Amino acid sequence: MNTIEAAVPMPSAARSFLDRDYSLRAWLTTLDHKRIAILYALGITGFFFLGGIAATLIRVNLVEPNGLLLNAETYNKAFTFHGVVMVWFFLIPSIPATLGNFLLPLMIGARDVAFPRLNLTSWYLYMMGGLFTVAALLAGGVDTGWTFYTPFSTMFSNTNVILVVVGVFVTGFSSILTGLNFIVTVHALRTPGMTWFRLPLFVWTMYAVSLVMVLATPVLAMTLALIGLERLAHVGIFDPALGGDPLLFQHLFWFYSHPAVYIMILPAMGVVSEIIACFVRRRVFGYQFMTYSILALAVIGFLVWGHHMFVSGQSMYASMVFSILSFIVAVPSAIKVFNWTATLRKGDITFEAPMLYALGFVGLFMMGGLTGLILAAPALDVPLTDTYFVIAHFHYVMVGGSVMAYLGGIHFWWPKITGKTYPEGWARSAAVLMFFGFNLTFFPQYILGYEGMPRRYHSYLPEFQVLNVLSSAGASILAVAYLLPIAYLLWSLRYGGVAGDNPWDARGLEWQTTSPPPKENFLRRPVVREAYAYDEPAP
Amino acid sequence: MSALSSLPQASSIAPQVDTLFWFMLALCVIVVVGVLIAIVSYSVKYRRGSRADRSGRQAQSLGVELTWTLIPLALFIGVFTWSLFVFAKMRSPPEASQTLYVVAKQWMWKTQHPGGQREINALHVPLGQPIRLTMTSEDVIHSFYVPAFRVKQDVLPGRYTELWFKATQLGTFPLFCAEYCGLDHARMGGNVVVMAPADFARWLEGHAGPQSLAARGAALFRAHGCSGCHGANASVHAPDLDGLYGRWVQLSDGSTVIADDRYIRDSILLPKKHLVAGFAPIMPSFSGQLSEEDLVALIAYLKSTSSVANDPPATGSESTHEHD
C-alpha cells in the first residue's frame, strides 16, 4: 500500500457524487440531479411496498367468495389505497423521477438538469403529497377508488376524500415541474454534437413524457380542486342533485388519466430500447420510426380518453370516434414491439438480468396492448369494461410493462449509479420468477373478466373462486420476486464487486464517465456519436 | 353455450359479441405466438458465439417499417368497422320493444313493469321479447350488467339511460352492479329470470300491484296538481299533455325536441330547461317532491294518453345535449 499516495487528498472533482458530503443535511439540500434521483428512488420504493401491502390484502381477501380477511368497508379502502399509491406515488414518477433524473443529463452530456433547485422542489412536493396522502389513507382511509367517480366522491362518501385529493393535487405539481425541467434540459443543455436524432430513445421518451406531464397534469389539478369545491361548498359541478353533471367529471378525469397511462409506459419503452440495443449490440431497428412512434403515442394519447366511457351514457357517436382513435393509437405501440423484435435479428445477444427483464417487458406489454385492442372495440368493451378483464389488461401494461422495465433499468444502470455489481444469478432468477408469478396472477383475471366478474368486488359468486385462488397464488410468487431484488441490491451496496466505468460495454454517454459519476458528471468532455454505435469500439 | 366458455349466450346480441371477441382473440394469439417465435428463434440463432450470418445487420428498411405500420392499421380499421355494426345494434332497441323501468339506489335494483308489478333485485322477462330498460339512479352512478346477455349500461342520477336485450334462453342469470357505488357494491346484485311467454303472463297476473303504472301516474297527475294547469279545462295557459308523448315539440328558442322520457322528466324537475314556444315560464319545479319511481309512473301515464303506439324512435341514452 502506498501510504504517500493515500495521504494526498484526491481532488474533489475526481470523487464520486456519493463519496462526499455525507450528512443528512447535505442530502436533503442537494441540487445534484443524481442525488435527487436517489431521494426519489427511496420514496418510490417505500410507496411501492405500501401499495404492495394493500395488493396483498386484496388478493388474500379474494381467496374466499365471501371475503377471507376484510369486511366490505376495509376492502374498499384497501383497493383505493392500492390504486392511489401505485398510480400517483409509484408508477407516474417511477422511471422519470429516478432513472430519468439520474440519466437525462448524463445521456446528453450535461452537468445537471436546467433548473436544479426546481428539481429539488419537485422532490419535496412529491414527498409532502405522498406522505400526506398515505397519512390520510391510513387514518380512516378513503373508499372512492382511485378514480374518484362523482357524485359518490363528492356527496356520498364519508371518508377523507378532501385530504387525499389535496395530497394528489400537491404531488401533481411535482410532475409538472419535473416535466418542465426535462423539456428545457433537452432543448438547452445537449452537449455539442448531440443532435436530436442522435439522442438515445430513452431521452426521446423522457421528452415526450414531459410534454404529457406538463399538458395533462393541470387538468387533473383542476378536476381535483372541483371535487374539493363541490364536497366542501356544495357548488353544483358534478352532482345532478346540485345541478351538476357526473359525466363532466369523467371527461375531465380521463382527459388526464388516459395520457397518464402514457406517462407510465413511454419511459418503460425508453428503458427497454436502451437495454435491448446494448445486449443485442446493435442500433435499435427503425430508430427514426421509434422516435415518431414515441411522439405519436404522446399526441394521440390525448385524444382517446372517451374509450373509458363507452357505457357511461356518452353519445354512441362519440364512442365510435374514440374507438377508432384508440385503434389508431395502438399502431405506434405495435411498431415498437415489431422493432424491438427485429432488433434481435443479426444481433450478438447475451442474456444478462436487464435483458431478461426487457424481454419479459416485450412479451407482457404485447399481451396488455393486444387485449387493449379488444377493449377499444365498443361492442366488446360493453360487456368487458369494469370487469377483471380490464384489471388484467392494465396490469399487463402497467405492472408487466412498466414495473418490469423499471426493474430492468435499475439493474442495467445499478453499476453506474452505485459503482457496484449485484449477484447475476439472483438477478436472473428474480426476473424469471417475476415473469411467471406475474402471468399466474393476472392471466386468470382475463378469464374472470370474460366470465363476468366485476371489479372492486369484496365478495363474489362461488363459480369465480378457482380463478381467484390461482390469481392469489400467483401474487404470492410475485411478492417474493419483488422482495428478492431489494435484498440482493442492498447486499451489493456493501459486498458487491467493483463495477468499472462501462461493465456492459455500452455506448451511451453515461458510460463514458466513472461509476459512480463525479458530482460534475464528466471530468472530460464525452465523445459524442450516434446513441447506438455498437459497431464501433467504445471511445 | 359457447364451446370455449361456461358463460351462457342468453341474448340475441351475445353470439354476435362472442364471434367478434373470439375473432379478435384469435388475432391476438396469432400475433403473440408469431412475435414470441421470432424472439425465441432470434435469441437462439443470434446468441453470442453462434455462427449465424450477421452481415448487413445495420440495414434499415423503410419498406419493412411501412409494412408493419399499414397492415396493423388496415386490420384495426377492419375490426373497428365490424365492431361498429354490433355496437350500433346493441344501442338500437327494436320498434317492438317492451319498456320496463329500473331505479337503482345504494345498494339495490328496483324494477317496475307497466302493469304495476314491482321487483327488487330481480327482473322477470319473457323469452324472445325485446325488452328496453329505462334506467335512473336515486343517488350515485351504478351500472346494470348481465354477463349472460353481454349488456351493460351505467345508470346515472339525474337522467335516464337505456339498454335493451332480447333473451333467447330460459333460465336465471346473474345481474351485477358494475360501477363502484360504495360500501355494498359487491352485494348489489340480483337475477334476471327469463320465462316462457305463457309462464311470464301467469307471473304478471300473480304479481299484479293494486294498479298499473299508468294508473298510478294518473293519480299522481291529479294529486300533485298537474291536471290543474295541464288538463283540458284548465284556466292557466299551459301546454295540453294529452297525446304529447313521442311528438316533436317546438321550443321557445326555436329548436325542437322529441317528447320522450328524458324530456318529460326534465320538464317536471327543471321546467325552465325546455320552454315550449308560446308559453310563459310559470311552471314551478317539482324537484324534491317526486321520487324517481313517481316520475316513472307519470311518464307511463303520459305515454298511455299518447297515440304513438310504442316508444318514440330511440334517440339513444346520450342525446341530452343535442337540443340544449
What would a concise description of this structure say?
The complex is a heterodimer of chains A (539) and B (324). Chain A has 16 helices and no strands. With 539 residues, chain A is mostly helical.
Q: What do these coordinates show?
A:
The complex is a heterodimer of chains A (539) and B (324). Chain A has 539 residues and is an all-alpha fold. Chain A has helices spanning 3-7, 24-28, 33-61, 72-107, 116-138, 152-156, 161-188, 201-233, 246-280, 287-300, 316-344, 353-376, 378-384, 388-418, 424-451, 465-495. Chain A has 16 helices and no strands. In chain A, helix 8 packs antiparallel against helix 9, helix 9 (246-280) packs across helix 14 (388-418) and helix 10 packs antiparallel against helix 11. The longest helix of chain A is centred in the N-terminal third of the chain and has 36 residues, at 72-107. Mean pLDDT of chain A is 93; it is low at 1-13. Among the domains of chain B are: 98-206, Sandwich (Immunoglobulin-like); 213-321, Cytochrome c-like domain (Cytochrome Bc1 Complex, Chain D, domain 2). In chain B, 34% of the residues lie in helices and 20% in strands. Chain B is built from seven helices and twelve strands. Chain B has helices spanning 14-45, 62-90, 197-206, 213-223, 226-230, 261-269, 292-304, and strands at residues 98-105, 108-112, 118-120, 122-126, 130-137, 142-146, 151-155, 161-166, 171-177, 190-195, 248-250, 256-258. In chain B, the strands form three sheets. In chain B, strands 3-2-1-5-8 form a five-stranded mixed sheet, with helices on one face. Chain B is elongated. Residues 309-324 of chain B have low confidence and may be disordered. The chains are: A mainly alpha (539), B alpha+beta (324). The interface between A and B is large, with 85 and 83 residues.
